[in-house]
């Protein structure tokens, strides 16, 4: 999606996004609930940012990609109580372009969301 986001794909204003840099020592010290809250807050921020991007995109072909991304975020967050703000999030930064936003989206999913899901009971394989 990032490659096709050249023309007709820009943010009308900067958006707040979750920090994707991860300090594993800090992450490991958080309990499961704290990790889940951080991921939920990050997913919520990304959903808000992608919704804003959706309204500013003029490229119709990208609308379905953005819609799918938002649905996927909602699906991941459906496993938890959805937050109504970014409270509890370790850090944020501002994305000024659609490309930056989409890169954060991918990195957040590959980083903190992946780690949280790998540790989730439902995702662990029974090795007995």
UniProtKB/TrEMBL annotation:
What's the protein called, per UniProt? Erythropoietin
Q: Name one GO cellular component term.
A: extracellular space
Highest taxon listed in the record's lineage: Eukaryota
Task: Give the family, as the similarity comment puts it.
Answer: Belongs to the EPO/TPO family.
**Entries under Pfam families matching the protein:** EPO_TPO
A single GO BP annotation from the record?
nucleate erythrocyte development
Supply the Gene3D superfamilies for this chain. 1.20.1250.10
Tell me the GO molecular function terms: cytokine activity; erythropoietin receptor binding; hormone activity
Naturally occurring in which organism (per UniProt)? Liparis tanakae (Tanaka's snailfish)
Instruction: Check the record and name the PANTHER family matching this protein.
Output: ERYTHROPOIETIN (PTHR10370:SF0)
- Where would you find this protein in the cell? Secreted
Q: What keywords were assigned to this record? A: Disulfide bond, Erythrocyte maturation, Hormone, Secreted, Signal
InterPro entries linked: 4_helix_cytokine-like_core, EPO_TPO, Erythroptn
């Amino acid at each position: 999606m990032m490659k096709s986001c050249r023309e007709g794909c820009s943010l009308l204003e900067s958006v707040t996004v979750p920090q994707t840099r991860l300090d594993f020592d800090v992450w490991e010290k958080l309990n499961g609930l704290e990790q889940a809250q951080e991921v939920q807050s990050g997913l919520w921020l990304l959903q808000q940012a992608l919704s804003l991007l959706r309204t500013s995109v003029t490229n119709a072909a990208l609308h379905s990609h953005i819609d799918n991304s938002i649905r996927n975020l909602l699906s991941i967050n459906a496993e938890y109580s959805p937050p109504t703000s970014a409270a509890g999030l370790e850090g944020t930064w501002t994305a000024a372009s659609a490309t930056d936003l989409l890169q954060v989206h991918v990195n957040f999913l590959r980083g903190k969301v992946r780690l949280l899901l790998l540790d989730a009971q439902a995702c662990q394989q029974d090795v007995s």
